[in-house]
């Protein structure tokens, strides 16, 4: 998929939104009576804790603060596309006006979106681009995220990069974001490392990542792996455990999502980096667009980019990700308000926090 910003406004707005939880000023919804239903469908709750802990409450807060007559209907698919299809149909039956959809399997969603459009219900693709004629798409610049992951792995390797065999454990093939992360990582790594020696999908599942990493170790040997790209933090944790179990040391592993356990691993040096995609700018943007669509307002001032999806030009808002290394924990996830230092720096991590200036 090709992402194209419509002018310089997109880049400046993305940078503004990504900085310390700031958001663009939303269009003010019109006053009036009646309830405006907004459906929120999130994909899973096993490999990442973010959806129930951050996305749901933040989107709910944004929608209800902008629109006192708006109601939120929420469901989590638990990683099952068939469950999410039923949840989507239930939302349509409830008579919601807008559905924020983070799809389990984006390849399946075009007929869902068609059914919603036929009923006059707007669908906003949230975090992952759903197929079909969605009204808008809100996410981070996924290819840029992958490039940052790849470059951060190169930075961790330093002068050893050109002779490094790299293992890549990618996200689920059903997730269009995963393909963009992968493409971005290859842009950064290809030609700058010795080779990508092993590459497989970990399906966003730590247990699959463990299996794939063990395959890589058996295939390449203990001395045949110099770095590992893991598409998210859950899989990075599994990779690190597999390396430890095999007695392999000093291999940088990177992830994504800035989960609190990953931030702690970054502080202790077990994980080289993670990628922080501030939740609040993304949830604020999604909530604001949902309210505007529910009220029948124009979203062109909020959606400042265009995503080409199968020939469809989808109004989009693409935000800027941030690399988190040991020296940047304080300035990023603590300074940005994702975690308090006291949340991260339990007794076990007190010294690591002190060494990194996290306080």
Label this structure with key terms.
globular, 19% strand, 359 residues, 13 helices, 8-stranded mixed sheet, disordered N terminus, alpha/beta
Write the layout of secondary structure elements.
Elements: E1 2-5, H1 8-18, E2 36-42, H2 50-66, E3 70-76, H3 81-94, E4 98-101, H4 110-118, E5 122-126, E6 136-140, H5 142-157, E7 165-170, H6 176-189, E8 195-201, H7 206-220, E9 227-230, H8 233-245, E10 253-254, H9 260-268, E11 274-276, H10 279-294, E12 305-309, E13 312-319, E14 322-324, H11 330-334, H12 341-344, H13 350-356
Parallel strand pairs: 2-3, 2-4, 4-5, 5-6, 6-13, 7-8, 7-9, 9-10
Antiparallel strand pairs: 1-12, 11-14, 12-13
In total, how many beta strands? 14
Order of helices and strands: EHEHEHEHEEHEHEHEHEHEHEEEHHH
Strand content: 15-25%
> Major sheet, described briefly?
8 strands, mixed
Which shape, going by the Cα principal axes?
Answer: globular
What percent of the residues sit in helical stretches (DSSP H or I)?
Answer: 40-55%
The largest sheet has its strands arranged as 1-12-13-6-5-4-2-3
Radius of gyration: 21 Å
Structural class: alpha/beta
**Count the helices. How many?**
13
User: Whole-number average pLDDT?
Assistant: 90
Low-confidence parts: 1-34
Taking the alpha carbons of the first and last residues, their distance comes to 41 Å
How would you describe what is shown here?
By secondary structure, the chain is α/β, with parallel strands linked by helices. It contains 13 helices and 14 strands. It has helices at about 10-20, 50-65, 80-95, 110-120, 140-155, 175-190, 205-220, 235-245, 260-270, 280-295, 330-335, 340-345, 350-355, and strands spanning about 1-5, 35-40, 70-75, 100, 120-125, 135-140, 165-170, 195-200, 225-230, 255, 275, 305-310, 310-320, 320-325. The strands form three sheets. An eight-stranded mixed β-sheet has the order 1-12-13-6-5-4-2-3, sandwiched between helices. The protein has a four-stranded parallel β-sheet with strand order 8-7-9-10, sandwiched between helices. It has a two-stranded antiparallel sheet with strand order 11-14.
């Amino acid at each position: 998929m090709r992402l194209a910003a419509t002018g310089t406004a997109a880049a400046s707005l993305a940078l503004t939104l990504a900085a310390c939880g700031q958001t663009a000023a939303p269009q003010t919804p019109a006053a009036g009576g009646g309830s405006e239903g907004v459906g929120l469908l999130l994909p899973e709750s096993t490999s990442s804790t973010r959806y129930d802990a951050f996305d749901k409450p933040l989107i709910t807060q944004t929608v209800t603060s902008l629109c006192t007559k708006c109601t939120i209907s929420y469901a989590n698919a638990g990683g099952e596309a068939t469950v999410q299809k039923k949840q989507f149909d239930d939302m349509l039956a409830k008579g919601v006006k807008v559905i924020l959809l983070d799809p389990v399997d984006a390849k399946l969603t075009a007929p869902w979106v068609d059914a919603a459009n036929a009923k006059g219900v707007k669908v906003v693709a949230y975090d992952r681009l759903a197929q079909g004629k969605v009204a808008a798409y809100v996410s981070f610049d996924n290819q840029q995220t992958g490039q940052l992951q790849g470059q951060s792995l190169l930075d961790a390797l330093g002068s050893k990069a050109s002779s490094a065999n790299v293992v890549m454990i990618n996200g689920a093939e059903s997730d269009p974001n995963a393909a963009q992360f992968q493409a971005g990582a290859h842009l950064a790594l290809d030609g700058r490392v010795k080779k990508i020696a092993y590459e497989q999908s970990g399906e966003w599942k730590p247990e699959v990542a463990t299996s794939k990493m063990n395959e890589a170790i058996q295939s390449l040997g203990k001395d045949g792996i110099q770095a590992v790209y893991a598409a998210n933090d859950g899989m990075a944790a599994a990779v690190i455990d597999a390396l430890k179990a095999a007695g392999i040391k000093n291999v940088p592993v990177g992830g994504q999502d800035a989960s609190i356990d990953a931030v702690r691993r970054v502080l202790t040096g077990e994980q080289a980096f993670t990628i922080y995609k501030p939740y609040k700018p993304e949830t604020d943007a999604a909530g604001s667009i949902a309210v505007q669509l529910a009220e029948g307002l124009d979203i062109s001032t909020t959606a400042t980019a265009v995503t080409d999806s199968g020939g469809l030009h989808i109004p989009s808002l693409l935000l800027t990700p941030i690399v988190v290394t040991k020296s940047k924990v304080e300035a990023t996830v603590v300074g940005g308000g994702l975690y308090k230092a006291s949340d991260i720096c339990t007794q076990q991590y007190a010294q690591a926090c002190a060494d990194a200036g996290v306080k």
